Prior knowledge:
Layout: H1 2-30, H2 33-39, H3 44-61, H4 75-93
Helix pairs in contact: 1-3, 1-4, 3-4
Amino acid sequence: MIATLQLIIYCAFFVIIFGLAAWALIDAVRRPPQAYVSAGKRTKQFWGLVLGAATAVAFVAIPYPLGIGFLPFLALLSAVAAIVYLVDVRPAVTPYSGGRGPRGGGGSGSSRGGW
């Protein structure tokens, strides 16, 4: 019973890393290339390649019952790449993304809250 619970937690950990990397990749691809330059970050192509590789590695690292389970320690690098993008790059790029920010529109629309 304990071994089954450990296996479920272990698999869930890798699936979460894959989901995090995929989310970061999708977000990076949706941003315009000029937003990265305006924010002073690396290019869209750089982040696309890094996050694409991170997503592929995270997918391959998912353990046996759900996936291949090849080189699972590399999934940690995938998580690092996705977290760096989501915590550092995404907030910097969002204001330059033409209204595709976390609230859906760059100030146009509702007048709730604020000054």
